[in-house]
Amino acid sequence: MSSSVTILDRLNVLDRRWIFLAMALAVAAPILLGIGSDESPSPPTKRLFDRLEELPEGSRILMAIDFDPNSAAELSPMALAFTRHCCLRRHKIYFVTTWGTGVPLLDATIKTVVQSEFGRGDRPYQYGIDYVNLGFVAGDAVAISQLTSDIRKARSQDMQGTSLDSLPVMNDVVSLQDMQLLITPSAGFPGAKEWVQYAGTPYKIPLAAGCTGVQSTQLFPYYPDQLVGLVTGIRGANEYESMLASKYPVPYAEMSKRPASLRGGPQRWAHRLMISLIVLGNAIHFANRYRRSSHS
Amino acid sequence: MEITQRCREGRIPRCRNSGRRMGLLLAFLLITMIVCKGAVFAADAKPVNEGSGAGQEKAVAWFDFEKTSFALLTVAICGTVIICTELARRGKPFYVRPIAGLRAMEEAVGRATEMGKPMLFVPGIEDIKEIDTVAGLMILSNVARMAAEYDTPLEVPTSRTLVMTAAREAVQAAAIAAGRPDYYNEDRVYYVTEEQFGYVASVCGWMNREKPAACFFLGKFFAESLILAETGNAVGAIQIAGTAETTQLPFFVAACDYTLLGEELFAASAYLSGEPAQLGMLKGQDFGKLAAMVLVLAGCALATWDSISPRVKTSDGQNGSRRTQWITDTVLKGG
Amino acid sequence: MSKTVPVIIASLVGFLMIFAFFSPQLLWLRQTAEDWFAIITTIAMIYGGLTLCFHHLKKISDSEAGWGFSAVTLLAFGVTVIVGMLKIGVVPETARNLNHPWSGPFLQEGGAFWWIYQYLFSPVVSTMFALLAFYVASAAFRAFRAKNVEAILLLVTALIVLLGQTKDREITTLFLPAMTDGSTSYLPIADLTEFIRKTIVTSGQRAIMIGVALGVVATSLRILLGLDRSYLGGDE
Prior knowledge:
The complex is a heterotrimer of chains A (296), B (335) and C (236).
Chain A: H1 2-12, H2 16-33, H3 43-54, E1 60-64, H4 69-88, E2 92-97, H5 103-118, E3 131-136, H6 141-149, H7 151-154, E4 181-185, H8 192-203, E5 207-211, H9 216-219, E6 229-232, H10 233-247, H11 249-252, H12 259-295
Parallel strand pairs in A: 1-2, 1-4, 2-3, 4-5, 5-6
Chain B: H1 2-8, H2 14-44, H3 68-89, H4 100-115, E1 119-122, H5 131-150, E2 154-158, H6 161-177, E3 189-191, H7 196-210, E4 214-218, H8 224-234, E5 238-243, H9 249-255, E6 258-261, H10 263-273, H11 276-308, H12 325-332
Parallel strand pairs in B: 1-2, 1-4, 2-3, 4-5, 5-6
Helix pairs in contact in B: 3-11, 4-5, 5-6, 5-10, 7-8, 10-11
Chain C: H1 4-22, H2 27-61, H3 67-86, H4 112-143, H5 149-165, H6 189-224
């Protein structure tokens, strides 16, 4: 009896650092052991996947990398997956960012996917012909508005300082209205909401978004009318990677090419820990109530 | 007449008296600018087709008729708010529901005074162009006045320079208003960084070192909300938060003692001032909500009617357009 | 007077933005106001940098608690500003400039600025963001307790959404018989999660957003009409 009272008392004043330690273990162990997790696709993710599949080869896709290192852990895997899918379908990709701190992440996406995976072989992806890096466009929402009316007004040169007029990929492209699809993995302001408000809805340009888990409730009202697809957090990226793996098993079934699936394991264990903590918290609460009532 | 009398008695701030002058000045400046620009437009206007000699001028509309319904809605809401303000000013009593978080502010300041510990005020991480930040600064003014009266230190780290400048003004004026000009210390209202998590690191570090007795998080917040609130909780501070960012409200609710939900953040300054005119504005807001409720119900009824009634078939056998289409086209798109 | 002029400016620009929204003729005025804001913000940035330096130098000179952090801040600030302003670049690829080792593009991989971003800025901010996982766990442990009916509703909803967010939702199907068509029957945890998110959360959020929008209108009017000057420190 006395020992159970002692445990309850200890739990009542549980140092939160024990919870931090438990969370560290729940996340670190699956990472170290390489435990991943698949996800079955949800309709908002599948709709984007299907849209990219349906578009004819050579369609123009704008990829707006609107996030910074803060949320790269959550959004970078989906940016890689979207880019991979575009390359597999041989679409023309127009990379851009409205975040100043997003430029290195944009470069990393191009380097990891377009240059490393699709830059060689029979039909390599060539800069200026198959893709272009428009870089950072300053002005937040105004920048999106400018791109929608005239890309060259917002940026007359690409990231390397080459005039857009001298790049074949920019032939016949005046504004975002010439794109077949806009995709934006985005973390905050300006982000998916601004792309809906200033580009997608007013000009009826098909738009799909990726967002952090927290933002999903804010963006769900736009799906399916204003957003053709919505990929949320690591789970959404995992769903996308799983679809990519089943459609293109070589080489995308390999876990090394699936960062979101690898993060699915730690996420799953972290969720399990949180559920356990909630249950434990309530057990403590009811034990305290029982103790108070039995004392009185 | 009565207003002038009350102004003389010092019951109404000077802004009432200067309001008319200010309005006139504003109108004059606006008209001057428009006239000047009109002249520039006229001078710049070139014939579109010089060959024809017709000389059509560049036509830029004075009013965007696509926004008619939005303009009417703006006028209706603003009008209701102004009418309620005027009624309140004339002495009509309005009931404003009590907000627990605002009543707890004085308690928080008192607690910090008793414990001899400082307080922290974070006016969000966005710039002064965001109305949430302005609302936070309005509340800062009231909190600083209370803090000055009790001589309790108030730390205000900001993530934008313009916010720092405005916060310094607010705290200094509050100290003067409280009759304690010596209370104001410029070093307590300072700029940290615009980088979201750099700012959080600095503020949380200060909280862990100084162990404030009360923390106020009022403004625009993003992912940093939970880190700030949990750190405040860990150091045992009484915490009052408020934001209009719906995604961050659950975090504040979970970790803070009191949370101002959405509109309550904007009502706070009026509520704390206790001025009838400002409280009247809150009532105007309530009428706006009533109108929104009626519109939502009407919309639901129309959508239900549209979905349950048989659809007219077109000549090719397809279903015709939605019965509610005319509302979307005529009312919502402004004609 | 010191408060009247800012109020006039705020009112003038504020009303202008409203009128310009409805009148294409006034669009240039709106754009001018936006340009001015950009200019003021840029100047304020320089002022912010100076304030930051003075604030931390004072802390160091007074040997206040935590002055060491101020020294680190100043050092980091100084190095980043110097590297950024001098645009210290990588070794250029063209033969003509090989003798000028730092004259290449300064944002390119391998450059000093890139190095600061990649190895200092990026890991530090990612770490701060990752702290959220720990704080979420401790907040969940403390906040989700079945103290009353509302708390029980919150608790049950949280458990459903948490379960529905991972593949663990499928565990709930294991003890149920298979459907007649052979597919696995399951408890609709995923559907419930979607229902909560799409219907309950969205409707609640929209209600709050309508309230916020009206609050913004009322607060803006208070500021534009000069009724509330507390953001400027009051009426003095």
